Structure formats: C-alpha cells, structure tokens
Structures
1.
Amino acid sequence: MPDRSRLSFDLDVDIAVVGAGLAGLSVALEAARLGASVAVLEGRHIGWNASGHQLGTVMPGYALPISELIARVGFEDTRELWSLSKQGAELVRANASEDLIPGIAISEGALEVSNVDVGDQLISRLQMLGEDFETDVEGWQVDRVRAELKTDRYFHGVYYPNAFQIDGRRYIQGLAALARRAGARIFEDTPVVSVDASGIRKRIVTPSARLRASHIVLAGNVHLGATLRRLSETLLPVWRYTAVTAPLGERLTEAITFKGSVADTDGIDHFRIVDGDRLMWASPETTWAARPERFAPAIARRIHKIFPQLGRPEIAEVWGGAAGHTVHGMPQIGQLRRGLWVTSGFGRQGLNTSAMAGQLIARSILWGDERWRLFSPFELVWAGGATGRVAGYFIGMWNRGSSAAAGTLARYRERARTQERIREARLAQANRQAGTRPTRPPPGRPLPPRRSEG
C-alpha cells in the first residue's frame, strides 16, 4: 500500500465517505467505478478496527433469522432482501480474485452446525432456503458432520457449497487498492471534526482542511464519536477476538478434515483451517474492550473443550475489533436526509452485506436505484448506552449458558438412546439364542416315555 496520506488541503468532490472500513471502501469503489469523484476520510488507518480483523467467511443472509425477517417485513420483501445478500456475496467473489488481489487465498464451502439434535427443524429450513429463497444448501446428518468434525459437540448441519472464505486482512487492503485504482482518494489520519449536511453542498471540517461534497456517506460504525453521537449511539459496540494457533501438524487432520469455515447456530464457535495446519478460532462476543492477548487462554481452552484430541494448542496471535450491532438485528442502510447517507450496523452480518450496501448506496446516488428502501423498516433505534452494554453482556452470558446446558442435555439424551439401543440389541440376541436351543423339561419332572418303533 502507498504511504498514508492526510488531507491537508481543501477539496471538492461528488461523494465524501467517512470511514475506510469494508462498508466505506465498498461505497468508494463502486462510486469511483461509476465515474464519480470520491474522497474517503479515515481517522486512523485503513481497516484498523473490525473490518481488518475478521475470519473472512462470505455467505448469504443476515444476522436476523429468516423467520423473524418474514414476520417483520413480509415474505416478498424478505425474498428481495435475501436476493440482495446473495448479490453481495457474488460481488465480494468478483473483487476477491487472485488477479485483482493476489494472495487472497480463497477456500470453498461453509458449514453451519447445531449444538442440539434438531433434525426435524433442519428439513423445513432446507426446504425454505432451497425452494423459497433459491439458495444452494445441503442437509448433513449427524454421522456426516462428525466424520468431518470429530467431536460429539455438534449434531446436524447445513452446508453452503457456494459460500467461501478469503484472507480478511488482504481483502480490506486489496479493496482500498482497487478503490484507488478506480480513482477514489483515501486520506488516513484524518478525523472528522464536524459535519454540516445542510444545503446542496455539504461541508466536512477536519483538523487540517475542509471538504465539500454533494453527498456524504457515514460509514464510521460505532466510531463516529461525538461528531455524530446520535448516530453512533444507535449501535451497540461488541468486540470479538480471533486467535490463530501455532502449526498443529497431523493432529489437526485427526480432529478436522473439513476445509471450509464452521459456525454453530448459537453464534459461539466460528473457526476454520488456515495455512494448512493452523486453526483460526473466534471467541464469543463481549460488550467490553480488553487487550486481545487476554483472550488467548480462553480460546485455547475452548478449542480443547470442543476437540480434546488437539490438547491445549499454542496460540500464535490474537486480534480483535469492535463491530456495531443494531437493536433490530439488521444493518442500517439508507438516506437520513437529502444527500446524507448511512451504511453501518454490520455486526454479525457478514462481508456480503457491507459489499451489497456499498453498491446500493453508490447506485442510488448516481443512478437513482431505490432498492435501499427495502431497509427502511429497520430504522435507527437507540442502543441503550452504557445500560445497553451491560444488558448485552448479561444476555450474551445467558445465551452461552443456555446453549451449553442445551448441548449437555442433547448429548446426555444421545448417550441414553445409544445405551438403550445396545440393551435392546443384546436382549434380541439373547432371545434369538434362546429360540434355537433344544427345549428341556423343568428340573424334577420325569421325561415322557419313549414311543416304541415298528
């Protein structure tokens, strides 16, 4: 990447983007490709927060389950929203090619596993995804899941063959390089002091220069800060820390043979193999920041708990960042007022959603595309401030505890069923053996007289 460039002179552009994360760079890249003049203002450096520290899994969908999405906006709008999420995944794949971003390290397939035995629910979900939402999915029975993931912690699974993984760090830097190549100008170490969205030409003040634009896109997530506090407070900051183990050698293939990413339905475990024999593993979420190194022992214990055959793996590196979660569980995408746009709230949403949002907003500004209005029902809602963070922490603890209890009960029931089948098999075998033996009279009774022959 080129040396960091700070905005040190006044500038006029068509579109100004605040924030050089996945969402902001996606807007900048699409708008620049469509011929607009674009400037991106970043207070620190490209991808410094959660955007540069993610597992790199790309698949369709949102944080809000489909059933709840249908209840909120109806079946037809849910189909449209789901179609947009698939388009977002395709856009990432188009950008994340080896030709455009060398070393992106694409691997195919994603598996979502259940912590409890929910075979009946799996069938209905597969039917909905495959028939109603035209998504390629496969249902995996318990035996197949455990053939790939050698642990009794997981039961059924949903496999997405068209999902894929990329090197997240290379992708964010590659996205910035593509945006620059398309003509966008990216200024780092340039925090925004104030935003004046009135009038036809909007104004942004930075410590060393002023910028004017016809449109301003706020993509700063929870870090918009005091300048735009009312917006930043609609997001609950949630940190997730990710670790990469030291090389595990043959031990890893004895525990995991699946090459794609794995996530459980409760959002607790998320992992995949990297560099051939290392394991990348994300910790559960927390609403409080801490030094990433503090989470290394906890992640090592979690790996050992799920895959005892790996022992306590050595952790080579840990990193993390804060993502913004919305109260309603959907991203914030749209126009706040004429010429002022927002794209944020991508916690738990995935790389596909930020890419799709960037394309939607750029095409709305330049082409008049109105599909962003599908997100209008998910308005800005205050996240509760410090009280919301405390509540989020305890809700997360409760959910993890509930998941652990449900998983323990499911494994107990599975063992009980197995033992019952073993007892029934032994009893059936004993009955078969008893049926083939010659009958003998009870002890103490004389034998019947033998009939004379002839």
2.
Amino acid sequence: MPNLRLIDRYMLKLVAWPIVGCLGVTVVALLLERILRLLDALSQSSARFGYVTELAANLVPHYLGLALPVAFFVALFIVITKLSDGSEIDALLASGQSLSRVAIPFVCVGLFLSLFSVALFGYSQPYSRYAYRSVMHAAVNAGWNGRLSGGAFIDENNLLMTADDADPAGQSLTRVFIRRLDDKGREEVITAATASLSADPAGEKVILLLRRGQRVGVDAAGGYRTLAFDQLTTEMPLAGAATLLRERGGDERELTLGELARQAESGTSVLPRSTLLAELYGRLARAAFLPFLPLLAFPLGLAAKRGDRTPGLVVAGILLLAFQHSLLMGQSLAEAGKANPLLAIWGPFLIFTSFSVWMFMGSRKRPGDTPVSRLLRRIGETIDRAVRMVAPKRQAAS
C-alpha cells in the first residue's frame, strides 16, 4: 500500500481482522445450525454425509451475504469505540484531521465490500442456490441406505416401511409394517413382531428376516390372501428412482443480475416483470448501502464514550433490521403488483442512507453528540424526573 497515508494504513489494519473474525464466526454458527437440520432431514438417505458436505458448501454464499452487513457494522463499532476509548480520535482531531478524513478509509472498505456484494448477490448466490437444490434433489432421491430408525418412515417408490423401535444401528427392528407394490401393481402388506436387516454382498439390496407376522397380498385373480408366518425372508432394493431437476431459472433467485435485467427488458419471461425488477433492485440496494454504514457507525460509536455502548448497538440493530425488512416488504408488494418496484426498493434505501448522512453530518462539529444520543438522553432525563416525582408520594404514603 505505497500510495496510502499512514493514517489510512493504520485504520485499514484495525478494521481488517474484526471483519474477518465477525464474518467467520457468524457464517460458521449459521452453517452449524443448518447442518444439524440437514443431517436430520437426510438421516435415511444413502451417502448422507457426502451430500451434507456439498449442501453446506453451497450454502456459504447465502450465509455470507446475510452476515456481511452485520459483520461490517460490528467491526466498525468495535474499532471506533477502541479509537474513542484510547482518545485517538481526540488526538487526530486536535492535529487538524477532520472526522470526514478519518472516516474515508472505512468508506473505502464499504465501497470494496459493495463491489464484492454485487458479485456475491448477483452471480455467486444464484448458481449456488440452484446447486444446493440440485444436490438436495439428488439426496432425497438417493434411495434408502439399508437402516431404519425407530418411528421413522421409508417412503420409496412402491414401498412404505416403518418400525416402532430399532436398535442404535437401525438393523434390529420391533413391530414392523411394510406396504409395497410388485411389478404388476399388486399390493402387499406385511406386519411382523421383529425383523433383522442385512445388506447383500453386492450392496444393491437389503435382505429382511421377518419373525412372527402376517402377510396379506393380492393374487393374480384379484383376491386377497393372508399368510401367517413364524419366519419370512424378503428382499428390498437400495437404489431410489431419481428424476431430473428442472433447468436453472424457474425461480427469480436463481437468475444472475444480467439475466434479471435481460428478461425484464424482453417481456417474454415466464416470470412477471415486476418480480424480476424487485429482485434486481433488491440485490443492488443491499450492495449499495454498505458504504453508508461507516457514516452510521461513527456517530453511534463515538457516543459510547459518553455512556453505555448498549444504546448505540440497539439503535443500530433496529435500523439494520428495519432496512432489511423494509426491502423484503417492498419486494413482496412489488411481486404482488401492489407497488412500483422502483419506489418499493429504492424508497427505503434513500430513507436509510439519508438518515446515515444526517447523523454523520450532525456529529462532525461535536463528535459523539448525535441526534440519537440527545434523544436517548432526553428520554433518560424524563424518566428520572418521573421517578423523582413519584418517590415523595410513595414516602408520604408509607
């Protein structure tokens, strides 16, 4: 970084590791929670661990996009409060540096993350979303793995099987129910007190040894026949019948930015034009608001020196949530045809960015003295006065 001044290099060095740390912790936490749900959903599928690895890898761009604004703001807040606590901001201002000059490196980081977000939201996420659905489709249709948990169901083509209880390995079953259809579509129902599962050497089917049960089936004449048995051996296939997944593009979230713009212009897309524009504007707005986060973090972070840091974080959290939910609501209204996509998406964006600029401009002359801090201070003073007015009455009553 030969062209950067010392203050720029210092600020960038301070903010780099907090961003990486916050991003890593947030993405890993989100992935671990999702992986547990995937393991539960694919517990009866063959090669489930291999599928879970692929699914988790395809979820990284999605969770990275969710975590990026929060991680960036938290990192900014940490760095700014650190500079404020060490009186480094005061020293920089005393040396003639303005608050706007101090904020420039953080705004540049926001611009870089904005470009990264365009690539992430616009091109990486659509492909990873479709890849995730493809892997999930393959996992669901991967077939039974030859084991059965107690209370679980195997629902393959022409086969339904369940057991009330099973050993930890899923191969010794109790109170078994099986319903299946043969090649000619004739139904057969088998119940048994116990059963044992074992895979054949070729690994293509499972051999079931059923004990103390009944077998009810339809014969060639169309009548039902019942067979009571002490021991019965039957076979079931392991491979499931996989079907092809539709091509990418059936969902607007699977389209890249270029594809969204082209299909919205062409007017020949199977998706409504308002849906395409709402998705396009929503992605661009989420990327474009990142450079404005430093303008919000600076006044809230500097205000923490005068009191508790909790109010600043609470206000920032409320603002970020309000912005994200307003974008989601705008997209929903635009997709339903109840609002113009341009106004529904860029309206909340302008409100948020204008508020951030107003907060920053208001704190340049007196860093830390923001409209929000003044509002919180007034609320606190009002509560104190109310408490003082109520306290004498309580003492007199006692």
